[in-house]
Amino acid sequence: MEExxxxxxxxxxxxxxxxQDPLEDRSSSRLxxxxxxxxxxxxxxxxxxxxxxxxxxxxxLNNTKVIPARLMGVKADTxxxxxxxxxxxxxxxxxxxxxxxxxxxxxxxxxxxxxGILTGKVLDIVEEGNRLIQFSYEGIFEEVLxxxxxxxxxxxxxxxxxxxxxYQTVYAKYEGSAAAPTAGLHFTQDLLRKVEExxxxxAYVTLHVGLGTFRPVKEDNVLNHHxxxxxxxxxxxxxxxxxNTKAAGGRVICVGTTSCRTIESAANxxxxxxAGCDNTEIFIYPGYKFKILDNLITNFHLPESTLIMLVSAxxxxxxxxxxxxxxxxxxxxxxxxxxxxxxx
Length: 344
Hints:
Blueprint: E1 30-34, E2 41-45, H1 49-52, E3 58-62, E4 64-66, E5 70-75, E6 81-91, E7 94-100, E8 110-113, E9 118-125, E10 131-137, H2 141-148, E11 174-177, H3 189-197, E12 201-207, E13 230-234, H4 236-247, E14 252-255, H5 257-265, E15 276-280, E16 295-299, H6 306-315, H7 317-329, E17 340-343
Parallel strand pairs: 1-17, 3-12, 3-14, 4-11, 14-16
Antiparallel strand pairs: 1-2, 5-6, 5-8, 6-7, 7-10, 8-9, 9-10, 12-13, 13-15, 16-17
């Protein structure tokens, strides 16, 4: 395959279009509809999504739940401030973490959080400089984390989140993500009910979003970029719903790039989703042949990111960049708390 350059996925984004706060009504965000076959663009409101779904379609949602993974602590011996971001639970109370500043967190260092309600001991330094930390506390870890932790908002969001629940989907169920599957933030319970009333099936899958999703592509040749591993699970019920939809000629529509990456990772060579759980490092970029996904509901992504590459694999790079150019001109809101796009 020919080389793919990172710069091929660049677009100019004025900083004021980066959404800093969620809208009061989740479903009132704007919706840009891109026809992947013609490149034609239409403008709607997100709650209109029901009009684009047909009876017999299957909507795939990622029901992961974001944990309040950002902890502010102090080094026990010096009192120096240290920020710890929980990335992945290894075993029991040992977590892989991102620590700032790293030089203060050498193996053996002890960090105290919430006046000692929680303490962490640095055990080891692993790939990318991440730290393995063993935590000690009394009671239930999730409850301690809920008290002391903050939502790990992406660095481009500088406003403080007033309501933690706004960085969760209304169907979030299984804790484990360091970031929200943001395309799902537009759905309300009322909108999901309308979707089901239309005869659209809803399949729930789980992929715990790691920060690797947002890791900048440093290699100029995109094919040299390595994706971080993320845990996913597909239940037999979800696999059956998706496979039966395909067999009956319905469309499989993923809400978000994480749902897309889950079902494409779980697909076999015959084009069927296989139930089970595993870790995935799937990297989808132009040239990729989708096994399961037909259409995608997604947000607007960062220039030169793996996510805009995934969207370009589905709708074509030129058409995607043209749609993004239109979105910028029409002042759509970008990234996690921004507007949505439906690729049909």
